[in-house]
Amino acid sequence: MSVAARFPVETVKTAIERGLLRLNCLVSDDGTWLCHRHGISNPGDRRIEQNTFVGALGSLSLQSLDHPVASDIRKRSRLRILRTKEPLGLWRYWRELPPDADSTSICNIALGPHPALLGGWYEERLLRHRNEQGLFQTWLRDGEQNDADAVVNANVLACLGDTKGTRPAQRWLNRIVQESTECAEIHYYWDSIDLFSAMARARQYCSALFTEAVPRIVRRLQKLRNCDGSYGDGLRTAMAVTALRRLGTPLTPEESELTARYLLDLQDEDGGWPESPLSSGPEWPKPRAFVFTSLAFEIACCVEALTALADTGSHYGGHFAKSPAPA
User: Fold this and answer.
1) Cis omega (within 30 of 0) on the bond before 287?
2) Which of 137, 209, 307, 322 is deepest in the core (most CB within 10 A)?
3) Residue 258 located in a structural domain
């Protein structure tokens, strides 16, 4: 019998349970997700970061999980999102900087329909802070240096959807994928998979977005797959699995088995996964000097991916292989 046929889905489900228990310990009672920052040249100098954005983004990875622990984490996270909302429905990543388009968009999505957002003022503010090309600028401030990041724009489109005001950004992101120029257009995130993941997530909320780019994103992700089932580090592997599923091209049972093994081999004894870079700073155009990581966010993404992989295996009698291979 093949190795794949001997690999039960229950093994993956056990890893999911362990991951959620560890994640529950990393999210405080007030909904704060544990994050760190360290210098690229000095990774040992780790400092605790507290922001609402990472918890909001992480909670989106738990939306599809029908599990009491995941539901409780989402509830706590949502309460923190609401407590940190600023006037007009804006949020900020750093206290020292103005509200930003990334935090505002992701927090709005994670909070969901709420009386505090009914005025739609955040939409006006986001649309007001576009550059001459119609691209959404990262920082919601006037008269100062600003930038347009590809991943941030994808997250804004997830929030605002397909409208006349978002069409220039849509065309820009479609062109980036077509021309493979994302490395030059990503200022605060880490990898091309970060952009593909954000665009796939945006389509989850508005299916009219990025239709032109979907086939190429799928091909790009498939080419990034390694022989061990990974797509880079653990975080990018999890993001790639989820993105492909959202784009309507989930992994085959055989691919799912190999990738599940990779993620399970990475899982620590305490239920977590090794931290991978999430984003970076300081403000563009200064060169990258420090990295943000979040074990909590990493776990949420890996649990989301393993849930998708387990679902694939469940369709085939609880194992990943469609049928046993001859002995």
Assistant:
1) no
2) 209
3) yes
